[in-house]
Structures are given as structure tokens and as C-alpha cells.
Specification:
eight-stranded parallel beta sheet; two-stranded antiparallel sheet; 336 residues; alpha/beta; single chain
């Protein structure tokens, strides 16, 4: 099924930064950012236990506690269980994402995609989020960036555990939709080739952006559209480097990426296009993409995102990007 009838709009709020991603964020700043998202009309919020070892869920739950539950859509993820015992956050093995949440809570994180762990993860998330139900549940990070050559083993564990549990919960009406939330296209392509799982949607982070989209265009997005599996775009600003930051793929951006960003920014300036508008609208122009969930930790960033979604971008700008080889020839653009 499509989740377009479930989502309240094309712009959501990704709350990974509320888990102290990259830096320690005061509770007051986190709460003010969620309040700003609400005041700007955003009603879809995405989180995960992994974000700061439960910190993002706790902060989001606190901020939304006084809001009518029927007024917003909430998604979180399974695949990691957060324990009461502690560990050194900076010493965690996170594959390619080492140190990502070293400022988060010190609670120990266990990777577990089994059926029992999936149910426990959901129960724990409900408690941290201070809610009685979840709308969408994503199976988190069963991909190469976290598991390297062992990613297929993690995927198989999820296929026989989390996938089946979530499908049953959807059929029972406990959740409304489920899918995978990853930073790589291969697990999603693999899932679309299976008859068994029947996911509703995917949350794909960083792989359909101005800076990185050609692999997703080749097979994943056409296949997803053909199967009526929607794509929610995570990280439309490529970990922030397209929005004035210095991170790409959750690390310091390499020189080649910064050089490409400079070329995009030069064209955006020439055509009087806000760079956030270019990035956000590009990610949402493909027929398979139904929403984007940029993250933020400052209230002012939310207003920028809302403005970016509505900004007028001339067709000449997209033509110029193609002419300089900065977007793929077959990439859909707004208004085309």
C-alpha cells in the first residue's frame, strides 16, 4: 500500500540531531526545535532508538506529550535495543559511522533484529516517546555501512524476525505501515525482489540527493514505483553539506564533495535559488518519493525548510545543472 494517505504532508522532521549527533544539544534547544516544527505546520516526526541511545525519542516524546496524538504521524525504528547498563559511547563499533552519537546517552546499544527484540524495541520506544501507538516502523540500518561484509547476515536476521513481526502488527492494526530505513540502496533492491515481506515504504537516507542519486535512479526508484512502495527521503541535505554544514555521509566532507557543492552553489546564486530549495525540491521531484525528513537542532532551520519547499525555482536552473553534469540526465526535476 502507499503511505501517501497516511502522511500529513511532503515535509517531515528527522530527529536524529536531537540525539546529540555531532554535538551536545541543550534540552531547551531540542524542545524549542520540535515546537518550531509544530508551529510551522509539520506533523510527521521520525526518530529511532539508535539516535543518542534513546535520547532523541525521549526528547521528542517530551515535546509532543501535550499535543493531540491523532494530530501527528510518528515513526521510529527497530533493530537496536537500548539497555540500562552503560558503555563508552565513543568506543562503539558503528561501522562507517564511528563516533556519530558520542555525545548521546551512555546506555549500551545491542544490535538485534529478531522477533523478540523487535517487540521489545517497540515497547521501549512507546515508553520513551510517551505514546500508546506508532504509525510507521522502519527496520534500521541493515546495510553495508554498519555491518560491512556481514550485512547480508544482519539482513537475513531481519527478514526472518523483524519483517514478519511488523507485517503481522500491520495486519492486526497495531501499526499502519512498515519498511526499511537505511543509507544504502542494495537492501531495498533486495527487499523488492522478495515476495514475502510486502513493505509499505522505505526511508532512504542520503542516496537521493543533489550530490548522490544516480545509483538510486538506475533500478531502485523505478522498481519501488512499480511495486507501489513509497520512498521517504532522509538526509536531503547530504548530512548538512548542502545546507552550509561541513558533514557528508556523517563525516567531514572530502575536498571533492566540497568542490561539487561549490559548483552547485554557484549556479544557485546565479539563478537566485536558495540552496536548500534546490536540494529539497530535487529530492521530492521523483514520482516514487513522497516526503522528505530533514533534521535540525535550531528552530530557525525549520522555517528555512518550510520556505525551501515553497520557493520558486526556475527551469533554467535545472537545465544549467544538467549542462554541467551536476545531475543525471534522467533525473526528474520539479515542473518537468
Amino acid at each position: 500500500m502507499s503511505i501517501t494517505s497516511l502522511l500529513p504532508g511532503r515535509l517531515g522532521f528527522g530527529t536524529a540531531p536531537l540525539g546529540n549527533m555531532f554535538r551536545a544539544i541543550p534540552d531547551e534547544e531540542a524542545a524549542a526545535t520540535v515546537d518550531a516544527a509544530w508551529d510551522q505546520g509539520i506533523r510527521y516526526f521520525d526518530t529511532a532508538p539508535f539516535y543518542g541511545a534513546g535520547l532523541s525519542e525521549i526528547r521528542l516524546g517530551d515535546a509532543l506529550a501535550g499535543r493531540p496524538r491523532d494530530a501527528y504521524v510518528l515513526s521510529t525504528k527497530v533493530g537496536r535495543v537500548i539497555l540500562d547498563e552503560t558503555e563508552d559511547p565513543s568506543a562503539r563499533d558503528l561501522g562507517e559511522k564511528g563516533g556519530l552519537f558520542e555525545h548521546g546517552r551512555p546506555n549500551r546499544i545491542i544490535n538485534d533484529y529478531s522477533a523478540d527484540a523487535t517487540l521489545r524495541s517497540i515497547e521501549d520506544s512507546l515508553r520513551r516517546l510517551r505514546t500508546d501507538r506508532l504509525d510507521i516502523v522502519w527496520v534500521h540500518d541493515v546495510a553495508q555501512d554498519f555491518y560491512g561484509d556481514e550485512w547480508l547476515a544482519a539482513y537475513e536476521s531481519a527478514r526472518t524476525g523483524a519483517f514478519r513481526v511488523l507485517r503481522r502488527l500491520r495486519e492486526e492494526g497495531v501499526i499502519k505501515a512498515w519498511g526499511l530505513g537505511v543509507n544504502r540502496v542494495e537492501p531495498l533492491e533486495l527487499t523488492l525482489d522478495l515476495d514475502e515481506p510486502e513493505p509499505d515504504a522505505f526511508l532512504l537516507a542520503g542516496r537521493y540527493t543533489l550530490l548522490d542519486h544516480e545509483r538510486a535512479l538506475q533500478r531502485l526508484l523505478p522498481a519501488a514505483a512499480a511495486r507501489d512502495v513509497d520512498i521517504v527521503v532522509g538526509g536531503p541535505y547530504s548530512s548538512g553539506v548542502l545546507a552550509g554544514g561541513q558533514h557528508f555521509e556523517y563525516r567531514k566532507a572530502p575536498a571533492a564533495v566540497l568542490a561539487k557543492v561549490d559548483r552547485v552553489k554557484a549556479l544557485a546564486a546565479r539563478h537566485d535559488v536558495p540552496i536548500k530549495a534546490a536540494a529539497l525540491q530535487f529530492s521530492l521531484a521523483h514520482p516514487a518519493t513522497v516526503a522528505a525528513v530533514p533534521g535540525a537542532t535550531r528552530p530557525s532551520r525549520i522555517a528555512e525548510d518550510v520556505s525551501a519547499l515553497d520557493a520558486k525555482v526556475p527551469a533554467e536552473f535545472w537545465t544549467a545543472l544538467r549542462a554541467e553534469g551536476l545531475i543525471a540526465e534522467n533525473a526528474p526535476v520539479p515542473g518537468a
